[in-house]
Design a protein that fits this description.
Blueprint lengths: L29 E3 L14 E3 H14 L25 H18 L3 E10 L11 E9 L6 E8 L1
Antiparallel strand pairs: 1-2, 3-4, 4-5
């Protein structure tokens, strides 16, 4: 074999069209808009990308209980079970761990910068305790855009 030829894993010389260099294009991640069938345009299954898509996906993740989705039984956070727990530091840490675990497994394109959980008062709209979850997120793209997502659990 000549010294200037490269050998692939399978012992053959890879064709020229298979060689790929770094791409300068920004890769965009798309997803369905939430809720489905909204009248904001784009039809029943309209798509979103960037910050809007991540915000909608995070709200959907935090407001869904595990077991609600038929084909994804582990999707969601069990945050409603914490509503009638004592609102102390250990409960808030459990909530944060639950959110971080679900976020890591189901959200693509962003990562958590800051995560805060606050009690909203003695009685919320449902008659029990209410929680406010505030996430400061950063997109994984080159521009590293930062934005906040707030979700009320009641």
């Amino acid at each position: 074999m000549a010294a200037n030829q490269t050998v692939s894993v399978f012992g053959r010389i890879p064709p020229r069209y298979m060689k790929q260099g770094p791409t300068s294009q920004k890769q965009e991640v798309y997803g369905l808009s939430f809720p489905l069938g909204s009248t904001s345009g784009g039809g029943f299954f309209s798509k979103r990308s960037g910050v809007v898509m991540i915000k909608e996906a995070v709200k959907q993740l935090l407001l869904t209980e595990r077991g609600e989705r038929v084909m994804l039984p582990n999707f969601g956070c069990n945050l409603r079970k914490y509503l009638f727990q004592p609102l102390d530091e250990s409960t808030f840490e459990s909530i944060k761990r639950e959110i971080q675990y679900s976020f890591k497994n189901y959200i693509v394109g962003a990562h958590i910068g800051k995560l805060a959980v606050f009690p909203m008062g003695e009685a919320g709209p449902a008659g029990g305790n209410s929680l406010k979850v505030v996430l400061s997120l950063k997109l994984d793209t080159a521009d590293l855009e930062t934005f906040d997502v707030e979700v009320n659990i009641s």
